[in-house]
Amino acid sequence: MNNYKLTIQYDGARYKGWQRLGDTDNTIQGKIENVLSEMTGKTIEIIGSSRTDAGVHALEQVANVKLAGEMTESEIHQYLNRYLPQDISVTAVTAVHERFHARFNAKEKTYVYKIWNESYPNPFMRKHSLHVAEKLDLAKVREAASYFVGEHDFTAFSNAKSKKKTTVRHIDTIQIEEDAGFVNIRVRGNGFLYNMVRKMVGTLIQVGLGERKLEEIQSILESKDRSLAGFADAHGLYLEKIGF
Amino acid sequence: MNNYKLTIQYDGARYKGWQRLGDTDNTIQGKIENVLSEMTGKTIEIIGSSRTDAGVHALEQVANVKLAGEMTESEIHQYLNRYLPQDISVTAVTAVHERFHARFNAKEKTYVYKIWNESYPNPFMRKHSLHVAEKLDLAKVREAASYFVGEHDFTAFSNAKSKKKTTVRHIDTIQIEEDAGFVNIRVRGNGFLYNMVRKMVGTLIQVGLGERKLEEIQSILESKDRSLAGFADAHGLYLEKIGF
Which HAMAP family match (chains A, B) (predicted)? Predict the structure, then answer.
C-alpha cells in the first residue's frame, strides 16, 4: 500500500461538514471516500487533518489515504477532480511516507473568518462571509484578540459536544486585517475545540460593535462558562492552512 | 420629480440578464423596479447603463430613476437593500441633475472576464469564472488582443440579435492580467454590441490554447462573418465600470 497526501479545497455551504456521518451522508469526507471507493473497487477511508463543521469552507484541508499503488499520483488526482462535485476540488496528490498521518502529524492550523464590513451587502460573498453592516472598531477588536494569544483553557469558547481530552489550547497569533471592504480575522494555533473559532470571532464582533467591553474576554476565559461567549455563523469561516 | 443615480452590484447567475422582459420576469431591472414600485405605490421604470446578458455579473452597473422627492437618498438606499434579493446590492444612491441619463450619458464601459487557469477547479469561483485547465499562452493572447484595439467594425464579434444602428465600436484598451491563478481580460471601450465581449474573449482563449493563430483576429474582423469567432460562457463576465 502507498500513502498519499491529498490537498483539498471546498465550498462547505451545502455540506454537513468534513466528517462522514453515515453511508449516504452529505459530508466532504464521504464524497471523497465514495469517489476513491469507486476508483479502487474497495472501501476506502481517508483521514482528514481538521473536522470542519457544517457550512465551514476550506482553502487548504489535508487528508491522507492508503491505496494499492496501481495508479500514478496524476491519475488519482485527475480521477478525483473528474468525479467529485464542483464545490470540492483536490489541488494536489502527493505520495508521502507510510507513517504520515494527516491528523496526528498536524502541528498547527490556521483559520480565517471573513466579515464583509460595508453598509450594503456583497452579492458575491453572501454565502462566504458574514455581513456586519455597522463599522467595527478594529482598535478594540485587536486589543480584545490579544487576550486569546498564548495558552488558555478554552472551555468557555467551546461547545459541550467537544470530545477532546483537554480544553487547553495554544493560540500563536490572531491577525485582524482590512482588505477592500472585508475584515479578516486570522487565527493560528496548535488546535481548536469544537466551535472555538466561531465563538472567539462572535465575541470579538460584539467587542467591535461596542456591545461588550474588551476586558470581558479575560473574564469569559476564566469563567469556563459556555453560555457567555458570542457565536458567529459558519459560512464566514475557512480552514486556511495546516502546518506539519 | 428628483433624478437619482443608483450604483448596483449583482451576481447574475440566476437572472435572465438586466433588461426587463415582462411583468413577472426574473431580470435585475425587473427586481429593482418591483421594489421601487412597492416603495412608491406607483409603476416605476429605471434606465440602466448597460443591458448585461443572462448570467453576466456586475461589479458596478449604473441606473437612473425619477422619483417624487418624498424620501432621502439614505432612506431609498436602505429600502432597496432591505427588499432586494441577496444577490443584488445597491452600493450607492445619489441625487443627480434632472438631465442625467444612465444610458445616453455613458461614455465608456469596462468589462472584465475572469478565467481560472489552473489544472484543478476552483470550488469558490465555479459560477463566477470560466475554468480553462490548460495553461494559456499569455504572450500570444496579449498580441492577439492588440488587434481589437482602436476603431473597428465588430460585426463578426456580434450576435445577429444586436439591434444597434452601427456595428463600429472603439476599444480603448485590453489588459491581460494574471492574479493568483486567474487570468483576467479587461476590455474598455465606448460601447459593445450584443455578445461582443464574450465572442472576443472566446476567440482570445482559442489563441491562448494554440487552437487558432493570432493573426486570424484581423481576418475575422475583416470577414464580418458571425460564424467564425469563439464564444465564452456568460458566467465569467462582469460589467466592472461605467464612465460618464
Answer: TruA (MF_00171)
